[in-house]
Design brief:
- By secondary structure, the chain is mainly alpha-helical.
- It has a domain of 29 residues.
- Helices cover 74% and strands 0% of the residues.
- It contains two helices and no strands.
- The longest helix is centred in the last third of the chain and has 30 residues.
Length: 47
C-alpha cells in the first residue's frame, strides 16, 4: 500500500534557528504584555 502525502508538507524544511528565535521572542513578548495587563488590573482593583 502506498502512502499519499501532501506535497506542501513534504517540501517544508524544519524551522531555521532564526525562525525559532523569532517565534520565541514573539511568544515571550505576548506573555510579558499579558502579565503587565494582569498586574495593572490587579493594582486598579486594590484602590
Amino acid at each position: 500500500m502506498t502512502r499519499k502525502t501532501d506535497p506542501e508538507t513534504e517540501k517544508q524544511d524544519p524551522p531555521t534557528r532564526e525562525d525559532r528565535l523569532k517565534a520565541a521572542l514573539k511568544a515571550n513578548l505576548q506573555r510579558r504584555k499579558a502579565q503587565a495587563r494582569a498586574r495593572e488590573a490587579s493594582e486598579k482593583n486594590e484602590d
